[in-house]
Known about the structure:
Elements: H1 2-18, H2 24-63
Amino acid sequence: MKKIINNIKESYNELVYKVSWPTKTELSNSAVVVLVASLIIAALIFVIDLAFEGVMRIVYERIF
């Protein structure tokens, strides 16, 4: 039981004193970067999906 309590105390001290938390500006900038990257990846997957759909239509038109 003593080990568990010691572990909790050490975890708390690490979170409070050793972790460097980002500022609001850094957090906002990171969120914007993630949003833009997500939109770019979504657009890329959309284009690939459209291309694959076109290829499959050509294949199915020739088979059936």
